[in-house]
Design brief:
The chain is built from six helices and seven strands. By secondary structure, it is an alpha/beta fold.
Length: 188
Amino acid sequence: MSAPPATPLLLASTSPQRRAILEQLRIPFEVCAPNYVEHGDDPVEHAAGKARSIDGGHRPVLGVDTIVVLERDVLGKPRDASEAEAMLERLGGRTHEVVSGLCLRTEAWEELHREVTRVTFRPLTPRDLAHYMSTGEWEGRAGAYAIQAFGASLVERIEGDYLNVVGLPAALLVRLLAERFAGTYGFG
């Protein structure tokens, strides 16, 4: 006899990348757009704010926020192509951090965590920059790149959770689900 299906998580995000990662991990979920306005640069605070803005009832709620940091400067989503190109130029040949905040909560408890992945870009030529800019992938992306697509061509090395760079610290989430819901979601 098989186990009953797990109660779907409530994902406090409309990010297609986060949805794809949860689907990849076969974690049942439903999307709920968070009612939260971000102020400042702390991804843990934003993850908590997103998760707390959703009334999950008896269901677990997941909030995530991700930023890109280069030498203490937060590189958010570029406003336009020139800002995106300047960000990518700065990242070329250097190592930056992708920092995610994760909040997993229920009515009874709340887990808040920070996950850091270090990403090193190869040196980028003006031709590399122009080619990447022509893809349009930089639009709406923190740090102006999407590692899960053509942006992978910019990367020389990754230290840490690859899926964190895509948009959700998957190893951390799996560990928390295994600890808090042993067996329920297929982990632990």
